[in-house]
Amino acid sequence: MSALLDNAPALDEVTATVQFSVDNGETPIAIVKEPGGGSDRRSGKYEDYQIVIRDARPIRDQLKLDDQGFFLTEFKTNITDFYDEAQVREIYYPEMETLVRNVTGATKVLVFDHTIRVDDPTKAKTKKVRNPVRNMHNDFTIRSAAQRVKDLLPEEEANIRLKKRYGSINVWRPITGPVETAPLAICGWDSLDDKNLIPAERRYQDRIGGVLHLSYNANQEWFYFPKMTTEEVVILKCFDSLEDGTAKWTAHGSFQPPETPPTATPRESIEIRTLYFFDD
Prior knowledge:
Layout: H1 3-6, E1 13-22, E2 29-31, E3 41-42, E4 45-55, E5 70-74, H2 85-104, E6 108-118, H3 121-127, E7 137-138, H4 142-152, H5 155-161, E8 166-174, E9 184-187, E10 197-203, E11 208-214, E12 222-224, E13 232-240, E14 251-254, E15 268-277
Parallel strand pairs: 2-10, 4-12
Antiparallel strand pairs: 1-4, 2-3, 5-13, 6-15, 7-11, 8-13, 8-15, 9-12, 9-14, 10-11
């Protein structure tokens, strides 16, 4: 058990089935379809496990970005329609750059994309967005994080930035609430073991991205924030270049809470992906 839970109160918990990858020596590959085009075509071996997922709300004040790699906070937005691409880019991107700058102390933050996910296949297809991801994963590898910097910054600036501290943070927000289906399960840095991280590829039309899949380990500690509202966001570290014990990344994926009623409102959410940089 991590130090986080040593003196924590008894936390409510649920037991749910989630998907892990199996390390069979082959690189898992996802052929990524366009949003709304259905599930990606995947290779690799996957297994379902039942895991305990604890309610992190009672310990939210103990969660630290550089210790566990994630936390919950409130952040109101001026967005009125998250399905309006122009609003998201013109209003939400600058808001999220400000938020990530404030929580990290970084001198520069760059939002480089976003994904809307809907736990309703019909609506996801109609809106041309993606479904929630069941497989437990992290959005970057060490190599792919550096490559993303090179992809997005001018060559001279990228070379300078890569010599200093940099990283990536996702900001996850429900766009309808409270969340009743497919909430986010998170495993923090402090209970991840490198031996369970499996480099994988995501092949897009124009590039190949690198992510980390996660294999099961009974020592992993999983958390979620029940009934998240549209004014709450999860700050989720996906990479940090520091090698001094600071949280480097986390793992996450969705799950269905037990006894979810058929009348539950399907989750709708937006993930903002950022790169952050320090001058020192």
